[in-house]
Specification:
Structural class: mainly alpha
Radius of gyration: 16 Å
Number of domains: 1
Distance between the termini: 16 Å
Oligomer: single chain
Order of helices and strands: HHHHH
Number of strands: 0
């Protein structure tokens, strides 16, 4: 039995995608502007080839965000966001290995990214149900 209030094939809320996408766009632009700092952090965390991977995943975040925002290739776009958050969140925001203010700041960023991951999973589910 289908839900009479849902319209199959309609993209999720444009306002919701704009708000979600605005945060992701800010994260990507900030990542590009602070690439050297982010590469240094990734290198410190033991990320392999950080000089290649950091700009690559930042670009992936930016492009995937555009896909979600404009609802183009939504499964691939939302899937790329899931991959981004699953890969970067525990590797960069490993608050459980830290103490003091650094621990607190990284815990907040870890939890923020988990919430953004949840949003990406919802978008992936929505995109998958459109068929």
């Amino acid at each position: 039995m289908s839900d009479p209030d849902s319209s199959a094939g309609d993209p999720p809320s444009a306002l919701g995608r704009l708000l979600y996408g605005g945060i992701l766009a800010y994260m990507a632009v900030d990542g590009f502007q602070n690439n050297d700092k982010r590469v240094a952090v990734a290198e410190e965390k033991g990320v392999p080839m950080p000089d290649v991977l950091v700009p690559f995943v930042t670009g992936m975040l930016f492009v995937a965000n555009l896909g979600v925002l404009f609802w183009k290739f939504p499964r691939a776009s939302a899937g790329a966001l899931v991959v981004f958050f699953l890969g970067t969140t525990p590797a960069i925001h490993d608050f459980w290995t830290m103490e003091g203010k650094e621990r607190h700041a990284n815990k907040i960023n870890f939890l923020k990214n988990v919430a953004l991951l949840g949003g990406a999973i919802l978008l992936l589910d929505e995109a998958s149900n459109e068929q």
